[in-house]
Amino acid sequence: MRPSRTWLIPVCLLVPASVPIRGQNLTSDERVDLIRGLTAEYATAKVAVPRSKKALVVDPKGGYDKKHWDVTGREFGPAARVGDIVQITKVELEDDRIVFQLNGGMKGGRKWYDRIQVGAGGRTAPISSGSYSVAPAGTTVALVFPDRLPALNTVKVKEIMAPVLDFNMRSATEHYVESLPPEIQTAIKEKKAREGMTRDQVLLALGRPKNKVRETKDGNELEDWVYGDPPGRITFVTFDGDKVIRVKEAYAGLGGEVSPPLKPPL
């Protein structure tokens, strides 16, 4: 009688790549997507967020212990005030929580804020020049679930965190634009610069200039922002301090004409 054969199939070949790991409901693919989708994101603080040595807890309904946060804020100071902009600089997924490091954590601060831009209508503007308030420091916040992490995606996490952190950066920009005089709102929507606008408003309307040229005239230091490339329309926006005092348009390099070379950017 011929002995029966036993076929051994490696278990790893039968297990798909995106299975829950360590007993969690999240798959490995979902974990990667969460970390990628949340890391480096910007948000507006909807409540005062204190600096804290231990992670500040937010529950699955977006609730938090206000009294504890207030006491911690008095002890260590604010990480973000209401309306301040924060950045998620690190995301960690643990058995029952998602841990967000904001602005570099407890030892972090404003080292990153010069690079932040917010956008409206396809245009962006830096927030470091005063129209938007940057959080003064860093901290750590944890979204904690009663058992293990459930199946989640980036959109769902942002919805849960909305009472504490608003990830809809467009709303902050739109709110700012809506607070401006009607003529300035119209200019921004039409992507035009006009006299009386500030630098931030021009950035929202036209974006960053191709070149900047400074000159001193009658004791005043003026700065021209130059938009466009020849051949075609070139727009010169002249600032005296933070205000636009002149907007001039010209057409260069058309009909065989060659425009003079621009001065090198500052």
Overview of the structural elements:
With 266 residues, the protein is α+β, with helices and mostly antiparallel strands. The protein has two domains: 15-168, no CATH class; 180-252, Beta-lactamase Inhibitory Protein, Chain:B, domain 1, CATH 3.30.1450.10. The protein contains seven helices and 14 strands. It has helices spanning 11-14, 28-38, 66-76, 154-161, 169-178, 182-189, 199-206; strands at residues 42-45, 49-50, 56-58, 78-80, 85-93, 97-102, 117-120, 123-126, 139-144, 165-166, 211-217, 220-227, 232-240, 243-252. The strands form four sheets. A six-stranded mixed beta sheet has the order 3-9-6-5-1-10.
What level of helicity do the residues show?
A: 10-25%
Distance between the termini: 91 Å
Structural class: alpha+beta
Task: Flag low-confidence runs.
Answer: 6-23, 110-132, 256-266
Q: How many helices in DSSP terms?
A: 7
- Describe the largest sheet: 6 strands, mixed
Strand order of the largest sheet: 3-9-6-5-1-10
State the order of secondary-structure elements, H for helix, E for strand.
HHEEEHEEEEEEHEHHHEEEE
What's the structural domain tally?
Answer: 2
Summarize this structure briefly.
By secondary structure, the chain is α+β, with helices and mostly antiparallel strands.
